[in-house]
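## retry 2 of 3
previous attempt timed out at serialization; input unchanged, resubmitting
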Amino acid sequence: MYRQAKWDEPLIFELSKPGRIGFSLPEPIEDVEVDIPEKLKRKKLELPELSEPEVVRHYTRLSEMNYGVDSGMYPLGSCTMKYNPKINEEIAGHPKVAFIHPYQDERTVQGALQIMWELEQWLKEITGMDRFTLQPAAGANGEFTGVMIIRAYHLDRGETQRNEIIVPDSAHGTNPASAAMAGFKVIEIPSNEQGMVDLEALENAVSERTAGLMLTNPNTLGIFEEDILEIAKIVHKAGGLLYYDGANLNGILGKVRPGDMGFDVIHVNLHKTFSTPHGGGGPGAGPVGVKDFLKDYLPVPVVEYDEENNRYYLNYDLPKSIGKVKEFYGNFAVLVRALTYLKIMGKNGLKAVSEIAVLNANYLTQKLKGTRGYALPHKELRKHEVVFSAEPMKKETGVKALDVAKRLLDHGLHAPTIYFPLIVHEALMIEPTETVTKEDLDYYVEVLKKISEEAYSNPEVVKSAPHNTAVRRVDDVLAAKRPVITWRMYKQLKEKGEIDI
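## retry succeeded, writing output
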């Protein structure tokens, strides 16, 4: 009989019954002696004893407790959690990819170097940049790399007074953190009523101390910065550089390039825009692209192509390089996945990605707009994502954005990003991406409207959600201060009566 997984699912060792076998070993090879040192030999091998169906069912039940892009719509605003095509995994898992080693001689990994070189050519064309490093392991790592390049550029010119990085109040949280880590003072400027950069505030913020401005376009509200050329002019006139946070590149693919907007440095989240897995701390990749005048500051090595001898090689000859930002050459398997995706999609496919992503976000916006309890601050037209505010609902019913997010789980839906960006109170930040269907969007809106009705008729149902999940609502403060991260910790706390989920 089928049994759905529960939070207190037993360990596979506890399911063990003596004598049950779910595997077979090959016959030993005759006349082959292997001399294993005594200290390396196991004295005892403790493995659970189960049949193959029991093992399969156990891990299948556990997998059902998880939710991912293969389960359904995953609309985390700003994270761009799109479906990952399985062909990407197949190519990345090929033995010629999976079993090479970064210490191999260049002559034996020409294919790997070609993959990295070709990926750089794609990224240059897509973004309008002149050179790339593929080293950074993630977006934040890319940000740090980018601002370090900006820092090196100014110091090389003797402009040691340039110690300020400007960020809008709608910026990603990692932007000011990355700037501070690179030794800069962070200057925050406000957004205007339309949710875009306030030009007057920017004019007042720039000075001889300005090293650069960190910005993404479309911005974190999902709004395109219409004054981007004027923004670039203001920053460049002051002697600063313009940095592009690539988190929202999905909204402009094939339509406009950051390099053409006036940006000097950019990081690209391959794990977002180009559909490779991410979440839970990895994997990821955040290549950094620069205009030609900054290429000498890139991390070493960079991949070069010798056309005359038809060979690829690693170039360490960059005297002004900021050095390495990650071991070896980056997360290679993620780079392979991204190039696979790019080659399959092609120019027209990438353009369709942004068109459908923008269409989906605006379709959802129009369907949810006007629903009681949800406000739509700033401009109505969005790009790839939209930020609603549940502040009216909170004021009128006591139901918060957090409660809405928890109640969505009862309907088998993943919650959107909440409480970000900080300039929108009780924010619900929804990014459907291009890989969801109209039916997905209709159902998501239907559930959000139902939650609104519940908030005004029976708010306690929403405030106490979720009700249908393996784990009920937890104490967020206690969960942060004393997280239960293993099955045994849960058992011990349960026996002591210190936890009740």
